[in-house]
Amino acid sequence: FTFGPMLSAVTVGTFGIASPFVIISVLMVVIGLRILRIDVAEADIDGAPRQRLAFDLFRSRAFSGTITIGAALFVLIGTFDALWSLMMDDMDAPTWVANIGISLFALPMLFLGPPGGRLTQRVGPFRASIAGLLAGTVIISMYGVLPSPYAMMVFGCIHGIVDGLTVTGGSAAIAMVVPHQRLAAAQGMQGAAQ
Length: 194
Hints:
It is a single chain. This protein is an all-alpha fold. The chain contains eight helices and no strands. The chain has helices spanning 3-15, 19-36, 61-90, 95-123, 125-143, 149-166, 169-177, 183-193. The radius of gyration is 19 Å and the shape is globular. It starts with a helix and ends with a helix.
């Protein structure tokens, strides 16, 4: 998320629009081949639950809340992703500003994951997630009224800091409210909602 826009900002002008896609594809193949060599003891298939679908988890209001948290987060991210380039274009921002702006949004997440996880543990995943979503909503609203792409980059960085500190809440909430043997199904359901 952070590397792609920076790579695009550096390579597209010189090598063309296909260059970041080709570079990332090659890197993914190399990384994938390395990952295949790692020996990991997977869960015992005999101990896995027999349910094929996870809809029964929605009987729990707490689980439904975790799915709502995950979906709401991705509504904010989807809004940001879909509109960022259009807003930059409307403001006649240089291409590098649009690319670097997305990286400035994502960069804090690289460093704030561990402190964000500790914060989530301390205040609780539901509180951390809801606080992050409320702050993200205010920031998303600001994108619509800010006068310059540079002001938007500053708010994008603030948005990344908020997300970096609170994004772990949804997954932590699932781990807290779902039985251990159903975690994979619950995570899959959250991924589908997102």
